[in-house]
Amino acid sequence: MNKLKIRLIGELIEREGGYVNDPTDRGGETMYGVTKAVARDFGFTCAMHDLPYQTAFLIYEQQYWAPLKLSDVSKLSETLTVQLFDFAVNSGVLSAGKALQKALNVLNKCQSLYPDLIVDGITGSRTIKALNSYAAARKNDGLNVLIGAVSGQRISLFIDIAANDESQEKYTYGWLHRVVNL
């Protein structure tokens, strides 16, 4: 298994922390950041505070890392990988994929670098090919711009959540702090 993937999944689990059951958190009951609904979908049926670390690791690997093709993304940028992975865990794989696709579409110089992508959130071969083409054309500076574009969409999403539901406002600073400091 890829050492970078092991490290980044471990760091994410550490950021997420242990057992939490905050009644105002939309995610509900969690362990290592894994929601009860996600754990049940994965086949874990015991009490959430008993979720083993290794099960959480497998959930993150199979349900977040793999669908976003983060092993491919990590060949270009560890920082982009971390942002997309964290985005997917907090807001869903499709949301993270859509943010990447939207950013790539507006950064492709009117399709002169690569064709526009369908913004469906599915990180497939076309998205990875576009990302590789973008990185080849724009180099590290371009990757930094792309990371900022993805992070900005994530920040906007969090602000919209809090603006539309005051009960979520208590989490906003923490959400934004996390994105800015990843």
Query: Percentage of helical residues?
Result: 55-70%
- SSE sequence, one letter per element: HEEHHHHHHH
In the predicted model, the low-confidence regions spanning at least 5 consecutive residues are none
Q: Total domains, how many?
A: 2
Query: How would you sum up the major sheet?
Result: 2 strands, antiparallel
The number of strands is 2
Number of discrete helical segments? 8
What shape does the CA trace take?
A: globular
Structural class determined from secondary elements: mainly alpha
Give the spatial strand order of the biggest sheet.
1-2
GO molecular function: hydrolase activity
Domain Peptidoglycan binding: 98-180
Organism: Pseudoalteromonas sp. SD03
Keywords: Hydrolase
How would you describe what is shown here?
The chain has 182 residues and is mainly α. The protein has two domains: 66 residues, Chitosanase, subunit A, domain 1; 113 residues, no CATH class. The protein has eight helices and two strands. Strands 1-2 form a two-stranded antiparallel ribbon. Helix 6 crosses helix 7 and helix 7 packs antiparallel against helix 8. The protein is globular and about 50 Å long.
